[in-house]
Amino acid sequence: MSQRAVVVVDIQNEYFPQGNFPLVGIEAAAANAAKVIAAARSNGDLVIHVRHEMPGPDAPIFVPGSDGVRINERVAPQDGETVIVKNFANSFRETALKQLLDDAGVTEVVVVGAMSHMCIDATVRAAVDFGYTTTTLHDACATRDLEFGGHTVPAAQVHTAQMAALAFMYGEVTDTASFLAR
What we know:
Layout: E1 4-9, H1 26-43, E2 46-52, E3 82-86, H2 97-103, E4 108-114, H3 116-129, E5 133-142, E6 146-148, E7 151-153, H4 155-169, E8 172-174, H5 176-180
Helix pairs in contact: 3-4
């Protein structure tokens, strides 16, 4: 086993066009994430899937037991791969993620998934705070338009700003092809 883990955050049906909270570019992000997962499996890297659930059946999204909460088939876990269920944006908060990484001797974390400005941001920052070398694959992540103060911020701008912020102090941010070419 290598010292690297790929953490696949919230690539769930809820975020696809048939779901209740579709993201801009989720299909392309999932396709890139699938390439990264395949390479990780070939290289003997640890692959950990993270799945978001809202605590309670009356939640508007990520309802436990619903189709939307399921990990999308494009990146489905294989037998033996860990799936962590979380209830917060940060994949480390109140989960076994850190313990799993530490028990496996992981020092480098590669993060892919959704949403760029929420769960990816929170997970990457926590990983760095815990001392992991962190790489975020920007084209294997997706988000959506946001609104603030009566203004709509297009998903592409939200994503770009978030990736720029992560690249400033929270590890490497690169594209899938460059990462896989190493």
